[in-house]
Specification:
Helices cover 30% and strands 30% of the residues. It is built from six helices and eight strands.
Amino acid sequence: MSSLFIEYDDATGPLQLQLVLLRRMEDHHPDLVDDALHRLDVPRAVMREANRKWQGRLRAGGRRRPAGIKDYGALLGPAESVVPRALGDLQCEVHTWPVPLWPELRFEVTVAPGVGTALNAWLVRAPGAAGPELRTLDDLAPWAATVDEVARAFPPAKPMEGTADNRFRLAFSGPDKSGQQRRCTAEFAWGLLQRWEIA
């Protein structure tokens, strides 16, 4: 193993999670990822190695499987909080962890008790943290809002299938700066807004 990875090889917790999140976001905004890596004082190659190890864990045994709460727990340690949440008739548990790169956010994993597979895993606004003021489409800046925040700001929003793992899309209508309503599609990576376009 190259000496580049030795310093980071045994690291777990928020750093490794952040690197996995950033690798998916790099597809949309390499400039923002560069800035984030600089703040974390981590080389880009280490980010890619962290993602490779995460993907390797999910492909262990020769089959791709969805991440489960044990995977996230092994990476992050004990959750900051675990609370019950009903999704229709299904009683679930929601596990959350802090994310130092985005202190106003939390990483949230929803699981059905006894199943272990994550039903959802993404970034959400931390309790008590002020979210962005989303009045027009011009307010939709990259990394500024979560899925729930965009959906609440521009109802009714329709969930759409993402273009890759850990991507999510919303179809909605919102006013441009002149007040004209535009039909749009927004794309998120790990629950954080990456881009939007006129549909």
